[in-house]
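Note to self: keep these together.
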Amino acid sequence: MQFREVLRLLDGSHPVEEAVQAYQEARRELERERRDHFTALGAAPEQECPAASVYHAQSVISRDWVPRLTAEESYAHALDLGYKSYPDSPHVTLAESWPVDLSLVDAIRSRRSVSDVEDRPLDLARLATLLRLACGVTMRGPLPLRAAPSAGALFPVETYVLAFRVDGLEPGLYHYAPLGDRLERISSLPDRRTVIAEVLAPGLADITPPLILSLTAVLPRVQAKYGERGYRFSLLEAGHIGQNMSLVSAGMGLAGNCIGGFCDDEVNRLLGLPAPDEIALYLFLVGWPRPATGEEPAP
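Structure:
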């Protein structure tokens, strides 16, 4: 049974229970079809998440595994510095960094996931510091090295800035270019409430972050060398950057929250990504924490 049949049963002439039963049966039918697909690819019929098991099996590395590129080709591929860029867009020079006084130990201890932040602007200096210390260049040279590790030094993860209220920065969508340490303006954005409603869970509908950072992966860059394993490496790299963002935010007295549960198609469309070659992996909400009330925050 398809969901069109469920909609037909909601025309008011059928009992609600009948529509609910039809909906549940349609869900079960879709799940059976999905499982049959992955079972044919080698997943066990009783596997809880068959897609994950199939991908894991298809991306394993054994002693017989060799990269797609030779050592010379891999080195040339890393040195081509072929990262995402918007050369024709207006460029925004980032401000001087904000001093981060908190020690690493204190930043780790104070880091918490907080989405409900104050509705007030963030300053450009703190945004610049966040980008530089999370995913910026930390050592110049023929192969510029960055703040987070990357498989084969290929750096397929890109960072986009959704600026709603940042002093010194016109609201809009930006791309961070690490080599030039600058923002490239891509476009304007819908109002913040619309963006939040489209891409995040309903429980976050009322949050007011001045800034959202989005991490994406340009998959062909890493898959050229590592094949199917490249997707795993992209996820790991995004995780490293997300932790950097969390700790740097804590070090500057900001509240942040790493969000993996977002609406993929909506974020890809909002960022203008050429999916499936480039896909959104991670969102990071950042803003000013609300004053403490003396109560233990709810989990």
